[in-house]
Amino acid sequence: MMNMIKADLYRIVRSFGLYIGIAIMFLMIAMSIYLVQPGSISMGTVGDTSTTDFDDTAADDLTAGALENMSMSDLRELMLKSEGYELDRDILGHNMNLYYVFIFVAALAVTVDFSTGSIKNTLSSAISRRRYFISKLALITLGCLLLFFLNTYAAYFSNLIFNGSKVASSLWTVTKISLLQLPPILALTSILAGLAFTLKKSSIFNVVAIPLVLVFQLLFNLAVRLFNIPQKYVSYELQIMLGRLAGDPSAGYVRNCYLLCAGVIAVFTLLGYVSFRRAEIK
Question: Which residues of 57-84 are buried (b: 16+ CB within 10 A; e: fewer)?
């Protein structure tokens, strides 16, 4: 199994797709650092996604219209004067962006094998489907976690270097946030792994995985408004969960988040495994 993971790592590290994903991640960090506010690839969700409370005294006397007419450099200067704002914490609160980077990992690890037909040669050797599934799941999880922590510390040190300590938290704070966010991040990797083994072909996987979050948020927002879903349930949507875990969540909220994530991980892992076991490999 370890030899298989090493071989896959060797192949993925030399894949152009991986570096496209990493470039997208660093581009999002760079934009957030320059604008002194996190960017987000989403249509937004109903609920409170704020991570920090700060006193923006520099903007107290500005109207919304004045803020809209300010240049990016002026907005940057304004945000740098904000008291108590921790940009790196806020960037980590928008880690749902990493879902789109994780798609590259899942595609390179699993769907490429199905699309090229190399999986048939692998399974015809001494590798069982069970070992294949476990090794691929481990590879996706390892790859996504490496990108997750790379994003964390790249955002932290970039913010500290380019914007200064006034809008930065401590190294321990961003490490603690990352550890708190591990279960929802693992849930995202499980969703992608389950989809990859269920859909198999790269073309189908990309068509489903790329718009999945946006479609889910659209339906989720619609359901919240139509059925008046209480805020206490809305706060367990994955994007809101990542934002609140980057703040100062209660022990009860953290526990409930972890239980929900454990359920998501179990469901999508089982879905992927059962689909793969029943699949006809051509």
Answer: eebeeeeeeeeeeeeeeebbebbeebee
